[in-house]
Amino acid sequence: MTKSPMTLFLRVFLPFAFVYFLSYIVRGVNAVIFPFLERDIGLTAADLGLLTSAFFLFFAACQPLLGVALDRYGPRRLQTALMAAAAAGAILFALSTSLPELILARGLIGLGFAGGLMAAMKAITLWYPRERWGLITGFHMMAGGAGSMAATVPVEWSLSVLSWQGLFFWIAGCAVFAAAWLFVAVPERPPATPPGTLRGQFRITGIILVDSYYWRIQPLLCIQQLAFIGCITLWIGPWLRDAGGVSDIGERANIQLYATAASTVGFAASGLIADALRKRGVPDLLSANLVTLMFILVTGWLAFLPHTAPTFAWILFGFLGAYPIQYFPLVIAAFPQHYSGRVSTGVNLLVFTTVFAGQWAMGKVVGLWPATASGYAADGYSWAFGALFILQLAALAWLVMSPGRPMYRALAAEGSTR
Q: Which terminus of the chain has fewer Cβ atoms in its 10 Å neighbourhood, N or C?
């Protein structure tokens, strides 16, 4: 069943893009509201890292089940149900008065948005031709970048007319609207092959998770996404205050807006650039590696030269950090299409487990130095960002030197017995 590009845009792309837009608002909102959480709840740097990363812990924990559910039930029904969980989590966050309550609420929000990218990528593989997957994925990620932008100056402005609790009630209402939109607008498409038994489907996930090609790319993707997501969603705000010397919350929000605007442009450009380079004979993997190397160098810039053009450094960080999303379609395309839900969630499983642990660990590192009058010591950020710089270089070297290839034969044999 073929649908026109405009129909696909209105009924497939836009509803999932709106969900992803909301997901990035919730991911990044703590980078603006953290002073209120410090004041009202008494959170420390480690608490902020743990609280913000709780989103990613629940996000990661449900990925194996999410992958099977996406391949078995489809993205429309699953994402509709998950948005109800996100709405409940946002309401609970607004009503929370302690760190454990906030963690539980943010975890529930993370569960609700766990399919924000993966459900969309499943829908993309169902409705768009393979040669357009990278391009459409880049445009989808642009919606996430727009959400990151909304989580900066617009959120800072909203706090002049709303409390941070009221803001989360608004987020809950948007999640309910998204659930209704998905349920009404998105078409169903039966799977091309019978789904098989649940045991067989989970066995396929196990094969994917031990595949050599998966492990060739996964270490770099995990650490790069930790650096990009961990900093854009939280540490950019405290870094600007403590290492960058930006004391005014409005000015910090402006710089965060510039960085997230750059990431929005970067997401949109990533698919276009990869497509253009591919037509000129540059493989997608090579172009992704080259841009990732530039991103790693910018991470080192923030770690070791914090007073050298920090605003420009964060703009580059946002733009370059968006491009490695092109690793996702590369891994998905390496396996049979009807495994796409399990492949994408298999990638996400380790990515967001790493983001959870790493974002918390960054808070621990930053908190090792004595607090200053305004916040945390600048040396803590140098060590935390420096560790990200070194780990990314090592992971890129592993990717370049590893000869891993997809296990087509194992997957085909497993598929015949599912």
A: N
Mean pLDDT of 338-352: 76
Q: What is the mean pLDDT of residues 355-376?
A: 85
d(CA 376, CA 367): 7
Query: Quick one: DSSP state of residue 406?
Result: -
Tokens of 111: 């569960």
Residue with the two structure tokens 């540490």: 235
Q: What is the DSSP letter of 280?
A: T
Percent of the chain surpassing pLDDT 90: 29
CATH placement of domain 5-417: 1.20.1250.20
Q: Which residue has the tokens 């989580």?
A: 151
Higher pLDDT, 85 or 350: 85
CA-nearest of 388, 353, 392 to 209 is 353
- CA dihedral sign of residues 142, 144, 149, 150: positive
Read off the pLDDT of residues 143-173 as tens digits, 9 standing for 90 and up: 887 887 888 788 888 988 988 899 999 999 9
Asked if 26 contacts 150 with a C-beta cutoff of 8 angstroms, the reply is no
What is each CA distance from 196 to 75, 204, 337, 339, in whole angstroms? 18, 11, 15, 12
Question: 3-state SS of the chain: helix, strand, coil percent to 5?
Answer: 80, 0, 20
158 vs 168: CA distance, rounded Å = 11
Tokens found for residue 404? 């891993």
Q: What angle do CA 179, 174, 57 make, to 5 degrees?
A: 80
